[in-house]
Design brief:
heterodimer, A: 291 residues, Uridine Diphospho-n-acetylenolpyruvylglucosamine Reductase, domain 3, Enolase-like, domain 1, 5-stranded antiparallel β-sheet, 4-stranded antiparallel β-sheet, globular, B: alpha+beta, DNA polymerase, domain 1, 2 domains, 5 strands, binds FE2/S2 (inorganic) cluster
Chain lengths: 291, 159
């Protein structure tokens, strides 16, 4: 039963509150997922600690080439940020496709990651961007790659009754790098992704220097298509090679048949087209001149 | 349950109301402040009938804990016009037949107002994005879109 709702003004205060409450309190940011889980009994807590008015967590910043997105930053803030659109277009478009406009005004990107749904759009983009999260608690501060934050379906390694994720961070794209996000859905708003794919590429002299391909929901969390990445690394950019890598990506995907997301056969069939499309637009982004 | 005193600005007026930590803003507005213009359809963030503007942004008040409104500025359908002086959106929704049963209308208008307040001259794309979280079971959206675009014309002259 919920007995208290607190609105601390600093992260230090959050950590001490979590500590004092000894597992009986839980972090709330936008709340767009948590507030559905509480009445359903999926989550129980005596106290909610709202982090949405902590100034330091409300910012998107760029420092020494690293972009940081604070834990209270909403999806719409990210989707509309010029910095993110320019330096991490995959994330801008992922954030812009979550839920509905109103949900994106409340829900946060960090919350999307911590909620750990298999196809969390921004988590898929963040993995492709090579992002990691700063996590603080009374036991000490750690940094964990977003890719390693899933502990199972809908389970995060973050314990929101003891830990606070302060931000996610990743390197801003250099001039020779590009990223893209594509999503297959039944309709254009308030629809879960049937498939979503994010990629980031680095080009050098007409060749792929490195590539990260991330796809979902084809496993418990975002899945890296490492075989496809290996095919591209060091090779000359060509449509044939992109198709070959897209075909290889499917072998690492394990989509299940679902009434909401489509059959295994259908999704396996379209996945390579989505991977190829994402690669093509990331390459186009990396080749754009005056970035 | 420990009750709390929620202080916030509602349609430009300072309000103090006793809430429980688990109250949602939509219920406080409707049941404690008797502002029933804001509708509650799904209670799960899926229909947009409960949309209000909080600190300038359209949000689903069924997914906003009342305590989140502490010190905030909240606008509801009751605050945007009066029978004598309707808001341009209220006028165009009526004039262009963008209302049938009317259940979705307060939410549609608040989402649209949040858009027009920021961008008085939106295109179709922006209007569609702004009302993407509002479901209408009657009109088919075409007239709603027209009404919002028509209101944007009046916005410039009126405000
Ligand atoms: S009642 Fe809030 S979105 Fe449906
Ligand atoms: S007018 Fe009836 S739901 Fe929109």
């Amino acid at each position: 039963m919920l007995k208290d709702y607190l609105l601390p003004e600093s992260t230090t205060k959050v950590v001490s509150l979590l500590d004092n409450c000894n597992g009986q309190a839980r972090i709330i940011a936008g709340g767009t997922d948590l507030l559905l889980d509480l009445p359903d009994g999926k989550v129980a807590t005596e106290c909610l600690i709202d982090i949405s008015r902590i100034a330091e967590l409300k910012e998107i910043s760029l420092e020494d080439g690293i972009i940081k997105i604070g834990a209270a930053v909403t999806h719409n803030q990210v989707a509309k940020s010029d910095l993110i659109r320019e330096k991490a277009p995959a994330l801008a478009s992922a954030a812009g496709s979550v839920g509905s406009y109103q949900i994106r005004n409340s829900g946060t990107v960090v919350g999307n990651v911590v909620n750990a749904q298999p196809a969390a759009d921004t988590a898929v983009a963040l993995v492709a961007l090579g992002a990691s999260a700063d996590i603080v608690s009374s036991g000490g501060n750690i940094t964990v790659p977003v890719e390693k934050m899933y502990a199972g379906v809908g389970k995060s390694i973050v314990d929101s009754t003891a830990q606070l994720v302060t931000c996610v961070k990743f390197p801003a794209a250099l001039a020779n790098e590009g990223s893209a996000f594509v999503r297959l859905e039944q309709r254009k708003a308030l629809a879960l992704p049937m498939l979503n794919v994010a990629v980031m590429v680095s080009l050098k002299e007409g060749k792929f220097e490195w590539v990260r391909i991330c796809m979902a929901p084809v496993g418990p969390g975002p899945v890296r298509a490492t075989a496809g990445e290996d095919i591209l690394r060091g090779a000359k950019v060509s449509p044939e090679l992109i198709n070959e890598a897209a075909q290889a990506a499917v072998k690492q995907a394990n989509p299940r048949s679902s009434a909401l997301r489509g059959s295994k056969e259908y999704r396996t069939g379209v996945l390579p087209a989505l991977v190829a499309k994402a690669l093509e637009s990331a390459v186009a982004g990396a080749m754009e001149i005056n970035k | 349950m420990d009750n709390k005193i929620l202080k916030f600005s509602l349609n430009g007026e300072l309000k103090e109301v006793i809430v429980s930590p688990s109250d949602m803003l939509v219920d406080v507005l409707r049941d404690k402040l008797n502002l029933t213009g804001t509708k509650k359809g799904c209670g799960k963030g899926e229909c947009g009938a409960c949309t209000v503007i909080m600190n300038g942004e359209a949000v689903n008040s069924c997914l906003v804990p009342a305590m989140k409104a502490m010190d905030a500025e909240v606008e509801t359908i009751e605050g945007i016009g009066s029978p004598e002086r309707l808001h341009p959106l209220q006028e165009t929704f009526m004039d262009l037949g963008a209302i049938q049963c009317g259940f979705c209308t307060p939410g549609m208008i608040m989402s649209s107002k949040a858009l027009l307040d920021k961008n008085p001259n939106p295109g179709k794309k922006e209007v569609r994005e702004a009302i993407s979280g509002n479901i209408c079971r009657c009109t088919g959206y075409v007239k709603i879109e027209e009404a919002v675009l028509a209101a944007s014309g009046k916005y410039k002259t009126k405000r």
